[in-house]
Design brief:
By secondary structure, this protein is α+β, with helices and mostly antiparallel strands. The chain has helices at 2-18, 20-23, 25-28, 34-62; strands spanning 73-76, 81-84, 90-94, 112-113, 127-132, 135-136, 140-141. Helix 1 (2-18) packs antiparallel against helix 4. The mean pLDDT is 82.
Length: 142
């Protein structure tokens, strides 16, 4: 929720500071006060953010769309890198810095499924995510 709030605040400031041509000149023709109306509405929108995000997360969970997995841990055991997946799921990794989750939530073509106990080179730049059907966990990188 903090990430969503921060992103909204950043966009708000970008629009406010740059005036975004007063929220797009095309809309200005609709009302001479539309920009001020938009500014006045921001405090109400910001105050509702917590409840709106909480509700959305509850709905996503109800439909099995919430991301409920814990992050995978990357450990250097001296002879190489190993992954510890606290979930009873698969873990996918890439070594090129790209996200194992590809477009539309499918496994990326550059992702490799981690085999438990495998040791990867210490020099590998890993990006890892746990995965189960319709559920990607958070991204971890070393």
């Amino acid at each position: 929720m903090a990430n969503v709030s921060s992103l909204i605040q950043q966009n708000y400031l970008a629009l406010y500071n740059n005036k975004a041509y007063k929220v797009d000149a095309a809309y200005m023709g609709a009302s001479s006060t539309i920009y001020q109306d938009w500014l006045n509405m921001q405090s109400k929108v910001q105050s509702q953010l917590t409840d709106r995000v909480k509700y959305s997360l509850q709905e996503w969970a109800a439909y099995g769309m919430a991301h409920t997995l814990n992050p995978v841990t990357i450990t250097n055991n001296g002879s190489g890198l190993t992954l510890a997946n606290p979930n009873s799921t698969d873990a996918y990794y890439t070594t090129d810095g790209s996200d194992p989750m590809g477009p539309n939530g499918v496994v990326s073509s550059s992702a490799v499924k981690y085999a438990a106990g495998s040791v990867l080179p210490s020099s590998a730049k890993l990006t890892v995510r746990p995965f189960t059907t319709n559920n990607w966990g958070p991204k971890t990188s070393n």
